Amino acid sequence: MEWWKQYGRNFPWREEFLSEYELIIAEILLQRTKAETIANYYMFFLNSYPGWESLAAANENDLATLLRPIGLYNQRAKRIFALAKSMEQRDFIIPQDRESIDKIPFMGQYIANAVELLILNRAKPLLDVNMARVLERYFGPRQKADIRYDPYLQSLAHDILKGVNAKEINWAILDFAALICQSKKPKCSICSLSESCRYYKNNKI
Ligand code: SF4
């Protein structure tokens, strides 16, 4: 957290007072795409589709065309459009309980966690491949290939949220993964966690 306070990244979706729609759209756009890419695109999308109503009334092909600059556009358009339609059926109200959130089409574990964390203020991890990489390097390898069903990683990701601001620690780990504990060449020589990091001790990069 000390590192993050000094080096953490600023993104438009981390501003205060964003709508539920703006928060969810950001998380969907961010999946499998670099945050810097989405930072340059986010406001363009929101200006084109400013809320659930405009999105639910959209044409899926037009949506795919709009999403083309950030890639995976057909897949994303299908997912975002289905989500908007589903929200329309729910009068654009996000359910409060996890079981109902999970029933929204194309939600997935990551976005459902983001809804609980960012909208409902619950301590939930934004556990993606980047957070998983940091946790595995520091603590030890996962037990199952799929992050979503790995009890070890899931338990670790929940444990690190205890006693801290859950939103901030999630953002801190994601920034740390992007800037220090990078996939190909982790910057262990300037990492403040290196003395206690299992990966560093074993590899001495
Ligand atoms: Fe990642 Fe290296 Fe830091 Fe360990 S020491 S957390 S591997 S950057």
UniProtKB/TrEMBL annotation:
Organism per entry: Mucilaginibacter gossypii
PROSITE patterns reported in the protein's UniProt record: ENDONUCLEASE_III_1
GO function terms (MF aspect): 4 iron, 4 sulfur cluster binding; 8-oxo-7,8-dihydroguanine DNA N-glycosylase activity; adenine/guanine mispair binding; metal ion binding; oxidized purine DNA binding; purine-specific mismatch base pair DNA N-glycosylase activity
Identification of the protein by name: A/G-specific DNA-adenine glycosylase
Keyword Iron-sulfur: yes
Domain of life, per lineage: Bacteria
Example GO BP: mismatch repair
Signal peptide per UniProt: none
Function: Adenine glycosylase active on G-A mispairs. MutY also corrects error-prone DNA synthesis past GO lesions which are due to the oxidatively damaged form of guanine: 7,8-dihydro-8-oxoguanine (8-oxo-dGTP).
Entry similarity comment: Belongs to the Nth/MutY family.
Keywords (A to Z) from UniProt: DNA damage, DNA repair, Glycosidase, Hydrolase, Iron, Iron-sulfur, Metal-binding
CDD domains: ENDO3c (cd00056)
Domain HhH-GPD: 29-179
Cofactors demanded by this protein: [4Fe-4S] cluster
InterPro entries membership: DNA_glycosylase, Endonuclease3_FeS-loop_motif, Endouclease-III_FeS-bd_BS, HhH-GPD_domain, HhH_base_excis_C, MIG/MutY
